[in-house]
Amino acid sequence: MTATQDRPAAEIGKDRRRKEDQRLITGRTRWTDNITLPGMLHMAMVRSPFAHASITSVDTEAAKASPNVVAVLSGKDFGAELGVCINAWPITPDQKTPTHSPMPADRVAFAGEIVAVVVARSAAEARDAAELVDVEYDELPAVIGIKKALEDQVLAHPDLGTNKSALWVFDSAEAGTGSEVDAAIETARADGILIEREYRQQRLIPAFMEPRSVVVDPTGEQITMWSATQIPHILRFALAATTGVPESKIRVIAPDVGGGFGGKLQTTPEEWIAWAVARRLSKPVKYTETRSESLMAAHHGRDQVQTLTLAADKDGKVTGLKVHLDADLGAYIAVVGGGVPVLGAFMFNAIYKFPSYRFECQTVLTNTTFTDAYRGAGRPEATYAIERLMDELAAEVGVDPLEIRERNWIKHEEFPFTTIAGLEYDTGNYEAATRLAKESFGYDALRAEQKERRDRGDRVQLGIGVSTFTEMCGLAPSRVLGSLDYGAGGWEHASVRMLATGKVEIVTGASAHGQGHETAFSQIVADRLGVPFEDVEVLHGDTQIAHKGLDTYGSRSLVVGGEALVRAVDKVIDKAKHLAAHLLEASEDDLEYNDGRFTVAGTDQGIAIQELSTAAFAAHNYPEDMEPSLDAEATYDPVNFNYPHGTHLCAMEVDTETGAVKMRKYTCCDDIGVIINPLIVAGQVHGGLVQGIAQALWEEAVHDEAGTLVSGSFVDYLLPTSADTISFDVVHTDDPSVCTTNTLGTKGVGEAGTIASTPAVVNAVVDAIRHLGINDIQMPCTPERVWRAIQGSKAGGATETPPDAMPHFKDGALNQDEGAGQ
Amino acid sequence: MIPVKFDYLAPTSVEEALAALGEHGDEAKILAGGQSLLPVLRMRLNAPEVVIDLGGISSLRGIRDDGDAIVIGAMTTHHDVRDHALVHEHALLLAKAAAEVADSQIRHRGTFGGALAHADPAGDLGAPALALGAQFVIAGPGGTRTVEADDFFVDLFETAIGEDEILTEVRVPKHTGWGAHYEKFVRVAHQWPIVAVAATVKGSIDEARVGLTNMGSTPLRARATEAALAGASATEDGVREASELAAEGTNPPSDLNGAAEYRQHLARVLTGRAVLKAAGAQ
After folding, report:
1. pLDDT the model gives residue A492
2. Which of A39, A148, A813, B34 could crosslink B38 through cysteines, CB 3.0-4.6 Å?
3. What are the pLDDT digits (tens) for B184-212?
4. What's the pLDDT score for residue A796?
5. What share of chain A is helix, strand, coil (3-state, %, to 5)?
């Protein structure tokens, strides 16, 4: 038995190396594609090359005759047993929702949609035979892009009669949280400042490292599905709800999963087809997508056009914000597809005190890959819009962008603060984060250098971008989700098993896919229970082990799952105390619990938690009013979101001759409450920053007019590597704003870097060339777009932008006048 | 990603390789370092029945001195070209360009000859080879022949190498003491160049050679620029006029990374920078 004295004093706050990394990094673990079952068959998908077409015939004869092919099945070979892909978040009661069959028999609605599946004894034979399946299509007109979809001339789903799926509205005057925004706009138009802009959130691809993979074994009493998913519990529920198999007969396992970023927060056609094929053939089957398939058919993210009106008085005090979003859902409404842009509704007001606010979100259907959550999900888009607008407002007023923010933000003494969007921010200190970020960044020196380069007319201009972000994370209070018509709750479950030998197993309903839960949760339990870090084992991702849970997304695992864990541990301690009092023949009131040991106050008598575990196991001597077990579980439903925030400062160099942009310095000061493991936080922040920076500078999923994904490989879809980034300056305040709604005082951090960094980078690029008359560059800020903006300003606005460089803007969009920057 | 099934041959001599090529003709593909061929096979963009791997032919590797030229074996890796003393002494431009090929892993697998024979106009080695007036030694059933750089690159992914021939080595005339720079313009480090300029100059500036990457269906030489640079001074003003001529006669592609017009602009700007850096003036 391990002596409790071996345990270091405090685990929370310690830079623990991640205990899961050895197996994850070497790959010597159970990635789904590593799983091989006796008699397992392999599947290959036949996908539509057309964005919109009727399927007139599927000839499978040649494929069936191919070596070692067991079956070739198309949509018409299945009935109800195939199930449907669900939308769990209809955002309005009258939302138009197309039926999403995993493998339609009659009509495909995006390029990459599955029309047939080949099952063979090897993956290579399945792939070879898939090329022999002869599908005949009648091509239908395809609607690509938000602008075209809104016209309703060509329909993504003709039977729906429109491409407009739903309109979701929040209005502060109607909600009683503020005044009428149109009045504020009229006042500003007459005697103030009005900033009107249209911003584009380009479509992105989550591009997780491990392609999606699924194995289904129908040979046991329970049908088991292994899937590279973020959401094994939601997946199990959806399988039961749509395929007629009782939930109790379904076991879903998310083994080690190689990244998700929201891209594996999905219930996929591939999973449903694997499920149906395994049941049809009574054989285990496996499907692992290629990278090309992943880019084409795994869900995409973002894809919005934002029409924005910011009203302010002459001093730059904001009086109102009006937001209209058009959001591209793609061909189907994915599991939380429609809800993602709606999440932004609560974040456009960000850290500011706005007296009036109106938000409208129009979702549209197009013949493209369906969209859904991608790191930040709704919040990066909102943060981008407001942080870009605040920089524009500062330029209009003629003050420093930090100054304009300070005039509008919630002061630290004003917390808790109920926002115009109706959320109650519990804690925050924007002044402190900004002060530290400025100091660490060397703000004043960089501003001086910027001025010097401008005065000198240097070929390379310097720009400084600001982003003072907040986010709502820790999804989510179940009642709030209910009020938004989401199909599930937002609680999390944890249990603690005290093993006979004194080791501890904890079971969490969160489902890690790279976050480091095993390490962070071990640290929490080690401290709270007083056991060595190494003695804690974290179990997750298998619905037979972690029978209850709502999985991992929305920066929720620590703040919701961690709190459930704390509560379960506290129940264990209560039980252990009762047992300890019995064994020590002392009163519970006289017992103190420290470092894993109960001691009787004023004596040298005591007993360790491990000894109590053994005693409970032996059960030779325990109080009559308790069961012989210390195990406990807890389900925690958060009472509020939590609101991490931070000040991000970015310096970009812009080569005015080529338009090339280069990051010079990036500083972020994130206030995320109490930090459990600084190393894991640094990893989350670094990775998050790179993903946000990548939206600003590199990534864009582009479909051509026919609906073919042009950026269909990593040659054209530009993912950055470490060679493209700089060393980030990541700092935290000494005195963080501790979250008041969970025991540990933690706030989420998984999405912070992605949410904050995109506007900081674009603000910096625009700031570098604003003196040339430029006030926007469309994302990603390619060298060509920057160069064209500069050329346009030189020529007095005469440069034409080629259509392929800006395919999505509306004609005459507010800030897209020629030469004003694309 | 699984390629279509193919037969794999691993000859150990050029003669054996030529015999295999003769037997299988256009059903065969030559595998050098595989950095372009394997992705093509795995994405099923091509499905040869036979792949002939030159990796086992040791005579195709290495770099040697041959009087007024250095000779680079076709199977020499980018990494070895980048680091070799003979290359640094006599053809510095090649070392500079080889250092910019993709990433370290690819430079250790990809080969000099393989990249040139693949003839991707966005490849990093074509423009420097052209600028240095390289000669391509090609072995075929009737013996070997030598093709001048100007005649080697025919079109997009097309060279003077016949279907029954193999590129064995490249002779690079010595440019001893010439300064060199390869100016590559990319958005992310591992990307194919949007545009790149290969410049090597003697003195500052007596003579200059300038090659352009991804400015047409083959690597190109900026001859008007070269002519204008002879006798120019290695200053921004001195090279400006010559750089302005760099896009003459080019026909670059338009894609997500830039329209043709933008690429032509880049070629002019980058030429000035490359020449000045080659001359040690920047």
Report:
1. 97
2. B34
3. 999 999 999 999 999 999 999 999 999 99
4. 61
5. 35, 25, 45
- Using a CB-CB cut-off of 8 Å, the residues of chain A touching B194 are 783
Query: Is the per-residue pLDDT at B183 higher than 50?
Result: yes
For chain B, the maximum distance between any two Cα atoms, rounded to a whole number of angstroms, is 58
The backbone region for A216, taken as left when phi is positive above 0, alpha when psi lies in -120 to 50, beta otherwise, is: beta
Indicate the domain borders of chain B. 7-54, 61-173, 179-278
CATH number of A491-636: 3.30.365.10
Query: What confidence tens digit (pLDDT) does each residue in A516-532 have?
Result: 999 999 999 999 999 99
Domain edges within chain A: 491-636
> Do residues A303 and A201 make contact, with C-beta atoms less than 8 angstroms apart?
yes
Long-range contacts, A691-694 (Cβ 8 Å, 24+): A691/A261, A691/A375, A691/A753, A691/A754, A692/A376, A692/A380, A692/A753, A692/A754, A692/A755, A692/A756, A692/A757, A692/A758, A692/A761, A693/A663, A693/A666, A693/A720, A693/A725, A693/A757, A693/A758, A693/A761, A694/A718, A694/A719, A694/A720, A694/A780
Residues of A in contact with B269 (CB under 8 A): 657-658
- Give the model confidence (pLDDT) of B118-174 as tens digits: 999 999 999 999 999 999 999 999 999 999 999 999 999 999 999 999 999 999 999
Identical fold, B7-54 and B61-173: no
Which residue numbers of B have CB closer than 8 Å to A's CBs? 1-2, 4-5, 43-44, 103, 185, 187-192, 194, 254-259, 262, 265-266, 269-270
**pLDDT (tens digit per residue) in A582-631:** 999 999 999 999 999 999 999 999 999 999 999 999 999 999 999 999 99
3-state secondary structure labels for all residues of chain B: CCCCCCEEECCCCHHHHHHHHHHHHHHEEEECCCCCHHHHHHCCCCCCCEEEEHHHCHHHCCEEEECCEEEEECCCEHHHHHHCHHHHHHCHHHHHHHCCCCCHHHHHHCEHHHHHHHCCCCCCCHHHHHHCCCEEEEEECCEEEEEEHHHHEEECCEECCCCCCEEEEEEEECCCCCEEEEEEECCCCCCCCCEEEEEEEECCCCEEEEEEECCCCCCEECHHHHHHHCCCCCCHHHHHHHHHCCCCCCCCCCECCECHHHHHHHHHHHHHHHHHHHCCCC
Q: Do A128 and B189 touch (CB under 8 A)?
A: no
Residue of A nearest to B254 (CA): A804
Q: What is the mean pLDDT of chain A?
A: 95
With beta carbons under 8 A apart, name residues in chain B contacting A719.
188
Homologous superfamily (CATH) of B179-278 is CO dehydrogenase flavoprotein, C-terminal domain (3.30.390.50)
Radius of gyration of chain A (CA): 28
**Residue of A47, A718, A719 to mutate when probing chain B, most B C-beta within 10 A:** A718
Nearest CA in chain B to A662: B187
- Indicate the pLDDT class of residue B282, thresholds 50, 70 and 90: confident
Cβ separation B256–A710 shorter than 8 A = yes
Q: Count CB pairs under 8 A between chains A and B.
A: 66
CB–CB contact B259 A787 (8 Å): no
**Architecture, CATH, for domain B61-173:** 2-Layer Sandwich (3.30)
Q: Cα(A449)–Cα(A647) distance, rounded to whole angstroms?
A: 21
Higher pLDDT, A359 or A802: A359
The residue of chain B nearest to residue A702, with distances taken between CA atoms, is B256
Work out the average pLDDT over A410-420: 98
CATH of B7-54 given 3.30.70.1230, 3.40.50.970, 3.30.43.10, 3.40.50.300: 3.30.43.10
